[in-house]
Task: structure prediction
Amino acid sequence: MPVSAEMLRQAMRNWTTGVSVVTSCANGVCHGMTVNSFTSVSLDPPLVTVTLNRNTRTQALVAQSGVFGVTILREGQEAISKRFAGHSTEAVDRLAGLETFHLVTGVPLLKDGLVALDCRVVYEYPLPNSVLYIAEVLAIQSGEPGQPLVYHNRTYHKLVR
Result:
């Protein structure tokens, strides 16, 4: 029996992830989206990967500019995660009213995250409905120490010691 999208979605609900927001800009337009398909793939050189759905404004901006930022969210930032996750807000300015900063590429990074990474795409792999990007990390800025926002089975969780 072939694996359906729903079967894989159900299986992946068992995978616990951190939550991050990917942002990008091109031609004066900036946008971002919540992702959990983000990970480090190499320390030397410093490379990360993210997969973005083709039907998103953020993916279009990354394709145009070749750069993106990643802000790893901290515990208590569920509202920011939800703000950047909604399909209904794809056409609005999700960054409006939020404090941002820039490092090297000029992409907006969210203030108050655990850490922010500024990245330049070095490889891209087209998939049927998305694009897998591998990017060099050009700069990193850590925020105040804290716990990450954690996502498991369609719910936010807190780490406990």
Q: What stands out?
A: Residues 57-65 form the longest helix (9 residues). Helices lie at 5-12, 57-65, 78-85.
